[in-house]
Task: inverse folding
């Protein structure tokens, strides 16, 4: 499997940056994460996501959407709302969500 950044899209588009520290006991989290990864591509405005976790436990996920309406549709999805409630109740010690509009985007891929 080749790992690459999400491609650059024609701006403007929206990004949601979710930074978090997970709780020591995150039972059920991997299964719910897999379900969210299965569900979100069904959103017509979803463009992709990138996610990383530091050895110290800081996790950052950046999700990209065509517009604010697409992001709102994802936020209002009933399964996603249930996952968010469980995250606050069980899986996260803390988190921050930043939402912004991307005004400029470009990329680079080395050939060969």
Result:
């Amino acid at each position: 499997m080749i790992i690459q950044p999400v491609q650059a899209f024609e701006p403007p588009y929206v990004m949601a940056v979710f930074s978090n520290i997970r709780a020591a006991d995150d039972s059920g989290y991997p299964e719910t994460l897999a379900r969210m990864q299965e569900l979100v591509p069904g959103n017509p405005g979803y463009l992709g996501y990138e996610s990383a976790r530091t050895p110290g436990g800081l996790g950052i996920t950046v999700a990209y959407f065509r517009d604010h309406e697409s992001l709102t549709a994802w936020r209002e999805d009933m399964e996603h709302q249930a996952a968010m409630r469980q995250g606050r109740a069980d899986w996260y010690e803390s988190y921050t969500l930043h939402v912004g509009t991307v005004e400029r985007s470009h990329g680079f891929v080395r050939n060969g």
About this structure: The chain has one domain: 13-102. The beta strands are 13-22, 46-53, 58-65, 92-102. Helices lie at 29-39, 68-76, 78-91.
